[in-house]
Amino acid sequence: MTKRVFLWSTSRCVSTAFERSVMEIKNSKVFHHPFEQAYYFGPERQSGRYSHYSPDEKKTYQTIGKSLVKEYDGVELLFCKELAIFVKNHFGELLKGGFQDFQHTFLIRNPKKAVPSLYAASINKQLTGWDYFKPEDAGFKELLDMYRFIVANKEENPVVVDAGDLLEDPEGIMRAYCEGIGVTFDIEMLHWEPRHLPIVHAPENRGWHTNVINSTGFHRYGCSNSDINENEKTNEERLPEIVIQTIEDSMPYYEEMYKQRVTPKSATENK
């Protein structure tokens, strides 16, 4: 029987590097933000980011969901990395049909790191296709909403990983994560060859994940989901007030989930 796992996160949480690590698990199939297509481009879309595209009637939440719950021959782990914001107003679908077979896990990151990185990406049109920052893209409230929904309706203690801990102790954290989802940790998960990822983007924003595509493993510093140097804009004195306010607004949501995280110490003890 195929093990099915969601990893819920926000933008700029080192989640694509995490996804790349999971791709090293034998007999695994990885989905990258499948509901992004419904959120941005489908008839039920919830963002105006790509309003210049006509809605694609085939990219519905229901249609995309069917691809996740179907059977895949030879697949022992089906892993879906997704942003909680992409399924806001649709959480209830996760309690229906084949979605009941999924285990739900979470990846968080300090907003002081994630939000400036999102800001840098959002104003780099040449790389990402975006040219303005929107606070609602941060998604920390939606991630906590998802966490609370899962705890209330499905799993009492879902696995929570903090990106800072992951970059400090990749082996310890990935071992703990694998134990939490019931799969065998493989040391190959810490090192990999550059390769393309199962990513579908609008034509103008293919630069979001270039760095991970070209990466060979986790890196303590500068490990991000694109070629953007996060350190260039992390000094709050250089950030616009709207970005600083987004960081402050996001912190309570992050801090609540941070209390539930797998720690490097407990991860090491699980070796």
Describe the overall structure.
The chain contains eleven helices and five strands, in the order βαβααββαααβααααα. It has one domain (3-269): Rossmann fold, CATH 3.40.50. A five-stranded parallel β-sheet has the order 2-3-1-4-5. Helices cover 37% and strands 11% of the residues. It is globular, with a radius of gyration of 18 Å. With 271 residues, it is α/β, with parallel strands linked by helices.
**Termini distance?**
26 Å
The stretches of 5 or more residues where confidence is low (pLDDT under 50) are 221-234
Oligomer: single chain
Number of strands: 5
Q: Biggest sheet, open or closed, and with what strands and sense?
A: 5 strands, parallel
Question: Radius of gyration, rounded?
Answer: 18 Å
Q: In what order do the strands lie side by side in the largest sheet?
A: 2-3-1-4-5
The shape is globular
Secondary structure elements and pairings:
Layout: E1 3-9, H1 15-22, E2 28-32, H2 36-41, H3 61-69, E3 77-83, E4 102-108, H4 111-122, H5 125-128, H6 140-153, E5 160-162, H7 163-168, H8 170-181, H9 210-213, H10 241-258, H11 264-269
Parallel strand pairs: 1-3, 1-4, 2-3, 4-5
Characterize this entry briefly.
By secondary structure, the protein is an alpha/beta fold.
